[in-house]
Amino acid sequence: xxxxxxxxxxxxxxxxxxxxxxxxxxxxxxxxxxxxxxxxxxxxxxxxxxxxxxxxxxxxxxxxxxxxxxxxxxxxxxxxxxxxxxxxxxxxxxxxxxxxxx
Length: 102
Hints:
With 102 residues, the chain is mostly helical. The protein is built from 4 helices and no strands.
């Protein structure tokens, strides 16, 4: 499977607006099996907890370093991992999205 860094990179979602892509991705994420959801959430926690621990221990201007790490961790690591898990359910989610749109 291929890693996608943005929902715009997913070929099936190219014709949709950013808001529609987000809704479709949420629908696809709801179709993940329980073990996949568990694994995805554990990965997110492993990435996001260390910067929050650093935030709790720092009380000076160095506070911005963990915040930067948090943002980088989310957009560069967590988002592609989420898309990696969700992409196999995209076609089904697009069909569901089109049914709900009328």
